[in-house]
Amino acid sequence: MITVTSARKDYGSFTALDDVSLDIPSGSLTALLGPSGSGKSTLLRAIAGLEELDSGTVTIEGRDVTDEPPQRRGIGFVFQHYAAFKHMTVRDNVAFGLTIRKRPKAETAKKVDELLEIVGLDGFQHRYPAQLSGGQRQRMALARALAVDPQVLLLDEPFGALDAKVRTDLRQWLRRLHDEVHVTTVLVTHDQEEALDVADRIAVLNKGRIEQVGDPVTLYERPANDFVMGFLGSVAHLGGQLVRPHDIALERDRATALVLDAKVPDSPGVIDAVVERVVPLGFEVRVDLRADSGERFAAQITRRDAAELQLRAGETIHARAVGRSSVVDHDPALAI
Amino acid sequence: MTSDTDQQRRGPHPETDAAPLPPRPGATAPDGIRPRGDDAPHGAGSGGAARRTRHGKGLRGLRRPLGIGIVTLWLSVIVLLPLAALTVAAFDEGLAGFWEAVTAPAALASLWVTVLVSAVVALINAVLGTLVAWVLVRDEFRGKRFVNAVIDLPFALPTIVASIVLLSLYGPNSPIGVELNATRWGLVVALLFVTLPFVIRSVQPVLIEADREVEEAAASLGATTWTTFRRIVLPTLAPAILSGTGLAFARAIGEYGSVVLIGGNIPRETQVASQYIQQQIEIDRPLNAAAVSVALLAIAFVTLLLLRVVSSRSQRREERDA
Amino acid sequence: MRVSRGTRLSLRVVALGYLFVLLAVPIGVILWRTFEPGLSEFIASISTPAAKSALNLSLLIVAITVPVNVVFGVATALTLVRGRFRGRGLLQAVVDLPFAVSPIVVGVSLIMLWGAGGWFGALDRAGFQVIFGIPGMVLATIFVTLPFVVREVEPVLHEIGQEQEQAASTLGANGWQTFWRITLPAIRWGLTYGVVLTVARALGEFGAVIMVSSGFPGVSQTLTLLVHSRYIDDHNTYGAYAAATLLMGIALVVLLLMTLLDRKRSDR
After folding, report:
1. Are residues A112 and A95 in contact, defined by beta-carbon separation less than 8 angstroms?
2. Is ipTM > 0.90 here?
3. Three-state SS at A272
4. What are phi and psi of A121, to 5 degrees?
5. Which of A195, B21, B307, C147 would be A33's cystine partner, CB 3.0–4.6 Å?
6. Whose CA is closest to B19, among B105, B90, B125, B104?
7. Using the beta-carbon criterion (under 8 Å), do C186 and A83 form an inter-chain contact?
8. Chain B interface, mutation test: which of A15, A52, A55, most B Cβ atoms within 10 Å?
9. What pTM was estimated for this model as a whole?
10. Which chain C residue shows the shortest CA-CA distance from A78?
11. Rounded to an integer, what distance in angstroms lies between the CA atom of residue A321 and that of residue A316?
């Protein structure tokens, strides 16, 4: 269990962390999600001891580590750009934590070989980081961090420097690793898809504050505010409210639309809009629309519905919200 | 990447008896002062998760100011204190005494000879240095890598050796009958030798990075080779040429070892400022020596300052146009 | 830019011709004059007691200057790159100062500070000779070689960034372990290059050293001072050529090392 209480960090006049408090349950995989400048990296580094808080405390497994340097916090840290020890072999990199603790060589070698097998780098012992791909280097960094049996594993945008395909593969691999090893893991990312894919719990940060904490489903379906809603997935502005594009239904007949809309509580009503473009996107179809008010939004409908509607550019169509939209007291300041 | 292009990319790189280098891009540290981890545990135990404000960093924080203190002390003792002592000595008899020492006929003459000869050398370097840089970058011939490596020889060679070497060719026993001993042209040749690499190494990296497509565009629009060079290439090279020339000038005015044998030390004719200063020390006139030293330093600093102003202005223009 | 064949050739001729006349011919002449009387003459000339003691003195000065500059140079580079404090720009400028100062002025400054009538003149009066003694020559050499290690290590430190060091600290390494195992290996090529430059400059320093040295043969003459004294004082032209050739040989080795190391520190 990691507990952060009332953390505050300023850089001159810029507030990176504004009275942040957070509990991270033991054994969970928690994502710190937010745009750049939200403070997520600062928070992670404060937990690691790589940044010093101006005020507030950090507790790891019941022990107050606020004044402890990183060496003494029992953490493992993985950097976005790997921070590989370039002049050492893969083996020496992974063994580093054990080497400086003066563990016996045989024990160290065995542990290193085990770890390299777990991360799929068996046989790479004598290579240098420069000879590895980005994904391989990151796996090595992970093995290195795990070698010292940390209580907590902290990852700072670990897949940020990798290609899209490697990114998806590696994050799913990380999830599987976590399921086996069960180390409390905190992951910083700006990619909501990554967070939704991998994490047990997500903490959404914005401008140094925590907007919402919860499991992925809750955050996606019951966002606390417009910011969280907008950040977790795409949104459309429909009549002054935020709606998920796949929660928009299109009707040719206005009367039908009105009847159906009346059944939805707190809805933004029926919006008349002109079809600008119909874009097939694999298994869904996106329809770009422009409302009478001039507002542009996109609806995402199934292929079947699109086939039924037979929409053409320039036609007028009636849009209504289905299912939950954003909170009724829509705050424009929080919209993205 | 071949090694000679690496060398060419690096830019000037002085060794023996060297002169100011171009201002470096400031090394910016990542944000936040990060005290180096220290093994010693810090501070009293915590009292629960209560809000706590931290001032000062305990033992961890000591490292930084201690390091700065030691480095400052080191630089002061080695560099700053001697220069301070020099300046104080130069004004030992006040501003008037300083002025008198600097404007003494022999002193003034030596400064004049120094500046004149150095300026000529700088100009020759500007032209021929650029030419050599051009040939090294844009031309191909056997042995080019060797020639490129040899350019750095004046950097690695002791100045007194340069002096002797040039003397053997252009001195009293010249095998080709050219005697430049104790002439201003002898000074010029010696200074050309030691300042050879400056403009070349300054211009090479710029030439390598230069955008050939711009030149091709000019050609496609009808510009002749000379016009393209004059209007397109030269303006790009101008800051580097200026920088290298300034460095060469600053190096030349302070030069001693390479001119001491070939110059002849004739007052008003071939006596350069450094020789005058040395002479004043020898005849136990420390005030004169210090005063002219300060004057020489002032000229070097002004040159450095001008270089910095010009380079930052051209950098700003580059950023603006980018 | 399309350069006509004729122009290209003439530019090449001018460039190579200039270099030939300025560099190659003079060096060729001196090599000829040194070795023409025979190799044994050369060996004899550089094995005289005065020459041997000059070599020893030069090497002694290098042996003191290099470690001092390595320790303080790396410390300075670390402070400049990793620190954030007011006056950092000023410190940087001070590091570059020695490049702007004429060697003669270096000598005069040291005399003003350490000489008998200088600020620290008490030392001299107490019998500890700085000026006209070896300490003075060492101080002068340190002055002129100060920037090299710093300037070569700084960009490397800047380039490798702090992440490797931070990773080491998260893995449990303390400050010293991090420096020794991570930082130092990372900067080793830049550092070596800086040391090579320092050695070259230290061996070749003339103007500053001649000011603070008493110049007695066999006692306080470095190799460079030997060249000068043989020509001016002894009128031993051949001796001067021989000593100069010796120094030139060392310079060529330095140049070779520079070229080799340059490749090492560019690729990683």
Report:
1. yes
2. no
3. strand
4. -115, 25
5. A195
6. B125
7. no
8. A52
9. 0.78
10. C167
11. 17
